[in-house]
Every structure is written in C-alpha cells, then in structure tokens.
C-alpha cells in the first residue's frame, strides 16, 4: 500500500507538475519498440544514452540545468546533448520538439527524444529513449532522474511523439 501511495504521488508531481491526460484524444500511437538489431545511426546517439544513464539518481530541480544544482526534464536533455553530442538543444520541451526529425513507426532508436503531454499542454515533458521500450527523464520535484517504460504505465498514455537529432 505504501508503494502504491508513493507511485500516485510521483505520478501527480511530474516535470514541474504532471497533470491529468489531455482532454482530447490527441496522443499519437506509441512507436513499435525497435529490435535489438536497430542500433543508433550515429555514434553520438550512443554517447547520449550512456551519458543520460550516468545521471540516474541525480536530484530534480525545476529549471535545473546541471547535475550539481539538479535537473528538470529539458535541462537534463540540454545538458546531455551538449556534453555527449556537442548539440545545442535549449529551451523547454516544446521548444526542443520544434527541431529534429519526427520519428514514426518503428524508427525509434536509442538517443532519440520522446515527448509527452503531462500538463494538458502538448510536449510539456521530454525524455531520452534508451532502448528496450525505456527512456531516461527528470520526472518531478519529489524525485530524481530515472528510467521509465515508454510502453506501459502513466507515461505510455501521455506519449505524443518522438524526434531524432541524428542522421
């Protein structure tokens, strides 16, 4: 029962504040998780995944842009892409979703970004896909950077799109 209460509280807290699902059915279909044979197209994508995994358990902080002070979702992505791939992805999750190439169908690969509607606002949360149907993100003010399932649970119902920033 205690674990269920913790999961409910974490689900309500989110990247800033995670809200209820969108009022209209605008959530895209989840991409089919890629097979193990689908490796990142660019070696920088592998570096992004490894760097992001190294941040697991880093404290969350709204507006946080570095691990020492804490990270929020877009701050984590910006920090990882800047340090691991030399790419400048700045701004909010919605700002990041305006660049890159949309990933459809089974084209999702490790290192791609996944976007969610968590506050009744399109693309209000972002994470980094790491493979096997999982992603890394900085979820909420009561938590730490962690991995989640993209295909099951709370975030699966709020998935909107994926984008790649690699060739």
Structural class: alpha+beta
Average of pLDDT: 81
How many individual helices? Answer: 4
Count all strands and give the number: 8
Strand proportion, as a percent range, falls in: 15-25%
Please tell me what the overall shape is: globular
**SSE order:** HHEEHHEEEEEE
Structural commentary:
The strands form two sheets. Strands 3-8-4-5-6-7 form a six-stranded antiparallel beta sheet. It has a two-stranded antiparallel ribbon with strand order 1-2. The model is unreliable at 1-14, 16-28 and 32-38 (pLDDT under 50). Strand 1 (65-66) and strand 2 (70-71) form a beta hairpin. The protein has a single domain, classed as endopeptidase fold (from Nostoc punctiforme). With 167 residues, the chain is an alpha+beta fold. It has helices at 2-13, 43-53, 73-85, 93-97, and strands at 65-66, 70-71, 101-103, 113-116, 125-131, 134-137, 146-149, 159-164. The longest helix is centred in the middle third of the chain and has 13 residues, at 73-85. Helix 2 (43-53) crosses helix 3 (73-85). It is globular.
How do the helices and strands line up, and which of them pair or pack?
Layout lengths: L1 H12 L29 H11 L11 E2 L3 E2 L1 H13 L7 H5 L3 E3 L9 E4 L8 E7 L2 E4 L8 E4 L9 E6 L3
Antiparallel strand pairs: 1-2, 3-8, 4-5, 4-8, 5-6, 6-7
Helix pairs in contact: 2-3
């Amino acid at each position: 029962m205690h674990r269920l209460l913790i999961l409910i509280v974490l689900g309500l807290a989110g990247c800033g504040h995670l809200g209820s699902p969108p009022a209209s059915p605008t959530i895209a279909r989840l991409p089919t998780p890629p097979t193990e044979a689908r490796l990142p197209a660019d070696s920088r994508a592998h570096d992004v995944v490894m760097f992001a995994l190294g941040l697991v358990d880093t404290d969350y902080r709204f507006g946080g842009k570095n691990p020492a002070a804490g990270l929020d979702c877009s701050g984590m992505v910006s920090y990882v892409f800047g340090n691991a791939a030399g790419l400048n992805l700045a701004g909010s999750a919605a700002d990041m979703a305006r660049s890159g190439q949309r990933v459809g169908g089974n084209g999702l690969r490790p290192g791609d970004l996944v976007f969610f509607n968590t506050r009744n606002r399109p693309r209000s949360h972002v994470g980094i896909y790491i493979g096997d149907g999982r992603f890394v993100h900085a979820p909420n003010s009561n938590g730490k950077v962690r991995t989640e399932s993209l295909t099951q649970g709370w975030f699966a119902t709020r998935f909107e799109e994926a984008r790649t920033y690699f060739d």
